[in-house]
Structures are given as structure tokens and as C-alpha cells.
Amino acid sequence: MSSWSNHLPALQVIVPMLTAPLVLLLRPSGLAWAATTIASALAFAVAIALTIGVLDGQSFSYLMGAWPAPYGIELGVDAFSALVLLVVTGASTVALLAGRESLNLEIDAHRQPMFYAAWLLALAGLSGIPVSADAFNIFVFMEISALASYVLIAGGPDRRALPAVFKYLLMGTIGATFYLIGIGLIYLMTGTLNLADMELRIHEVADLKPILVAAGFITIGLALKAAVFPLHVWLPNAYAYAPNAVTVFLAACSTKVALYLLLRFDFFVFQPNLAGHDVQFAYFLMPLAALAILIGSSVALLESNLKRLLAYSSIAQVGYILLGASFVSLSGLTASVLHIFNHALAKGTLFLAVACLTTRCSGLRLENISGAARSMPWTMAAFVVAGLSLIGIPGTAGFISKWYLILAALNEGTVGIVLVGVIVVSSLMAVVYIWRVVEAAYFGDAEAGGAAHREAPPALLAVTWIAALANLYFGLSPSLPLALSTSAAETLMRHVP
Predict the structure, then answer these.
(1) What's residue 29's pLDDT?
(2) Calculated CA dihedral for residues 157, 163, 166, 168, nearest 10 degrees
(3) Which residues neighbour 327 within 8 Å (Cβ) at sequence distance 6 or greater?
(4) Which residue, 63, 106, 189, 354, is most buried by CB atoms nearer than 10 A?
(5) CB neighbour list of residue 44: distance below 8 Å, 6 or more residues apart
């Protein structure tokens, strides 16, 4: 490994974190956007370099201050964290490139440097969680990203974002507190905060009841962060009332990072040490995942606000990810990790198309976009492509992960057949709620709906179509995310007795 690549895990966090205070000093606001976008693009480049290294078989470990683990803070990157880093940094970069015009309209010029500084802190926190191998350090990054996310969601002109953020803050604080309680119990019993060291030292603990209690606290805390049903109540309004670029960023990656941490902690720390925990994990998550899939999709059928419709769809998609993980099998985890990547692609593109619609339509209710496809054909075509991926139509990225999920479910016997039925029914529901949008835009009365008379801005539309084409590319050539997902699943399963 070359000397410069040794520092890539640290650079993943340092680049956005050190740029954040500099952005505060930049005037005019266009410079703040440019610096933020460059820092995000550099973080994306670092994530790509890490991914290439992981695929080449390299091992990334960085000791902060040259203190050896477990006494010092360790950073590390494997296939699972590399995939999550691609999602986080890619979503941030795409959202910034697409959102310049809308953010100029939504955020006052004098507040933009502070807003972009918060964006970089959110990026640093969300990137720091996958690279950190220290449980308390993860908590620090979790709080950095959460506090910055509250600022981003409340930063727009819609005052309804304030009660949404307050609910998000309450739920997020409870989740973080539960996580910290769990970490405290494990530290009390093992005397270490390093995840790899925890796995080894728990073997030496005579009484495992505090560890089991810690598993409960950590699982519930991270489920709150990941909007796992029924702990999802903060998510719909947070997505609906945030600035459009913020929704693109957070919808693509924030819950995925919490799910990453939930799987990492459970499979690295608890599965190897708690007898029968794999069964407990499956019995706890499998019914919640099935309910999330069905109820999230059902509520989306009834929503007339486009952003809330897609937010409830995200709750169902979180259910797909948890369903694959609940099988505690190589095929299930492969499908689960793969869907983290593919859902980020589909949902990010859908919210980009929504951002296009907001530039020309009077609102985001279905009646507001009635007939919009006649004057915004490229925008609605991108929405349709991403919608097909969300449904899981062959040739799109969403089909690949749903297919792998169905194959994994079929290995589970009778229960698996029932779960395949759940997946199929939910996909049919997705057809209906995506069709409701398509029907309004293509067949609605443009005059009654007050829809647009011209296409979205070229820069925003170009980024939206790049994301839409990525859904097709990774549907036809899924080797990159599939290789990362398979390697991540193998790494997780190596810790299961």
C-alpha cells in the first residue's frame, strides 16, 4: 500500500471537517457553495479510492496519533464501510451540484455560509461513523451529524420544518442516549471501546446479562436513528419540509448509516458472544421489517403530498434492508447491503426529480403537478426511470437487490414463501403509488393543476439524469455494488457462530 493511501480513512473525515470553519468566513455566498461542493467532491474521490483499494484486497487501518488499538482511536475501512461511504459522499456531492439554484432561493444569502458549514459537518459525521472502529468515537460522529442535520432541515423558508425538527431532535436524542447507555454497560463489563477488542473481551465476561441489556439498548437506539417501524414518526415531516437539496442528501444516506451501524454492532459484537442471539435478532426484526414494508407502502398509497409519499416509501425500503439482515444468512445479508446502495440511487433520483418539479410547479401535491409532463418531459422521464427502479423492474438497480432478497427468502422455508408474498405485494403497491404521480403528471389537466410551462433548469436536470442513468447502469452492470455487498456479507457472517 502506498504511503498516501495510508491516510485515506483519516482524510475521509478531515477534508469536510476542516473545510467547515473556513466556509463560515467566505463571502459572497457563492464561494461558500463552491468550497462546500469541492470538499464534498474530494470526499467522494477519497471514497472511490478506498473502494478501489478494498476491491483490490487492500486492508485500511489508521491509528490516530500513532497510538495502537485498543488504547488509541482506530479508523478502518472494509467492503461494507466502503459501500456506505460511496453512498454518503456521492449523495452529498450530487445534492450540492443539483441544489445551488434552489438553495439560493430557500436560504438567505447572509445565512448561507453557516448553512454550508452545517452541511459539511453533517457530511463529516456521516462519513466518520463507517470509518470509525471505536464505539465512543462513533457516538461523537453520530451527534455531530445529528446536530448538523437539524440545522439543515430547519434552514429552509417553510416554518413547518421547525416542529418536524423538534420531533426529530427528541427522537434522535432518545436514540443517542440509548446507544450511549448500551456502550456504557459494555465498557463497564469489558473495559474497552474498540469494537474488535469488545468481541474478544466479552468472551471473558462471566455474567452476560448486562451485555444482553446493552444489546437491547443499542438496537433500539439505532432503530430510532434508522426510522425502523414503528420508531419512524420523525421521518415523514423531516423529509417533507426540509429544503429540497437537503432531502436529496439525507434521504439517500442518513438512515443507511444507522442501519450500517446496527448491523456492524450486532454481527461484530453480539452475535459471536450471546448464545441464541441470531434467533433473537431474527424474531425481533423480521416481523418489524414485514410490517414496515406493508404499512409504509400502504400509507404511501394514500398520500397526496409528493415528498411525504416518498418518505413513507423510504420506511418500506428500510424494511427490505432489515428483512434481508433478519435471515442471518450470506444471501440475506448480500441482498440487504445491496439494497442500501440501490435504494439510495433510486430515492436520491426521485427526490432530485421532485426538486426539478418545485422550480416550476406551484406546490408538491398531486393536483399541483397535474399535466406537468407536457412542459417538463425530461423531468418526468427521470422520475419514471427512478420509480421503475424503486418498484424493482428488470433492467434497473432496484430489481437486482429485490431479486437477491427473494432468493434469500426462498431459502427460509415456509416463512420465506410468506415473506416473498410480502415483497411482491409491496412491489405492487409501489406500482400504484408511483402510477398515481405518473397519472397526474401525464394525464392531468395542466390548467386546473397550475403546472409548469417550461422545463427545469439545465444544471439541475443534467444532474437528475446522471442519477437516473446510474439506476439503469447498475441495473444492467451490477458488478461493483454486488462485489462490495458480497464481501460485506462474508465479513459479517464470519462473526456468526
Answers:
(1) 66
(2) -90
(3) 282, 333, 408, 409, 411, 412
(4) 354
(5) 86, 89, 90, 92, 93
